[in-house]
Automatic annotation (TrEMBL):
Subcellular location: Basolateral cell membrane; Membrane
Keywords: Adaptive immunity, Cell membrane, Disulfide bond, Immunity, Lipid-binding, Membrane, Transmembrane, Transmembrane helix
Membrane topology: Multi-pass membrane protein
Cystines in this chain: 135-170, 136-154
UniProt source species: Aptenodytes patagonicus
Name used for this protein in its record: Tetraspanin
Organism phylogeny: Eukaryota, Metazoa, Chordata, Craniata, Vertebrata
Record GO biological process: adaptive immune response; regulation of cell population proliferation
Source organism superkingdom: Eukaryota
Broad class of where this protein is predominantly found: membrane
Membrane spanning residue stretches: 36-62, 68-92, 182-206
């Protein structure tokens, strides 16, 4: 059940419309940074393997097989080590992921403002960011006045005043998007780690109980 829940959360994060809209973008020959998906793929793999290992442990407990329970314990140790490594990787890269996406957006924004922007897909990339995140412009002076003179790039509001006061910069929105998703990944990883620790303890207790009972 825990494996199924983790797998479900990971698949939901993987196919979330906001992240997929942004991370599948391509600016000329350059692909949007998709380092974020590394953590998602690790969660998917852990969830799927946990489901299989769970059946192994359950069957081993029913059969009272020390071999199956020992294999179950070994698999859990390996999964736990992979998850700790993934957690360390995520903690180290949590700021870098949003930074890379913001740099990609800034490059597209600069191209969209250039006179020859019709020669590349910078405008299309920027519009996708703006429509997906409901924002307009980077975190600087140019971004602050963009809604006033580039209504072809920004989500259209009902009035000029709404453009000024309701349009938030995209750097802030990108930070909010990825910090929220990484927060969910972190919670899922902690829950899995706690469950794994209990599973390892209980499998060893059961294995020792079976071994002791076979002596008598």
């Amino acid at each position: 059940l825990a494996g199924g829940i983790i797998l479900g959360v990971a698949l939901w994060l993987r196919h979330d419309s906001q992240t997929t809209n942004i991370l599948y973008l391509q600016l000329g020959d350059k692909q949007a940074p998709n380092t974020f998906y590394v953590g998602i793929y690790i969660l998917i793999a852990v969830g799927a393997v946990m489901m299989f290992v769970g059946f192994l442990g359950c069957y081993g407990a029913i059969q009272e097989s020390q071999c199956l329970l020992g294999t179950f314990f070994t698999c859990l140790v390996i999964l736990f080590a992979c998850e700790v490594a993934a957690g360390i990787w995520g903690f180290v890269n949590k700021d870098q992921i949003a930074k890379d996406v913001k740099q990609f957006y800034d490059q597209a924004f600069q191209q969209a403002l250039m006179a020859e922007s019709d020669m590349n897909n910078g405008k299309a990339v920027v519009k996708t960011f703006h429509e997906t995140l409901d924002c307009c412009g980077p975190d600087n002076a140019v971004g602050a006045i963009t809604p006033l003179w580039r209504d072809d790039l920004c989500p259209k509001k009902e009035s000029i005043l709404k453009n000024i006061f309701e349009s938030s910069n995209c750097h802030k929105k990108i930070d909010e998007l990825f910090s929220g998703k990484l927060y969910l990944i972190g919670i899922a990883a902690i829950v899995v780690a706690v469950i794994m620790i209990f599973e390892m303890i209980l499998s060893m207790v059961l294995c020792c109980g079976i071994r002791n009972s076979s002596i008598y």
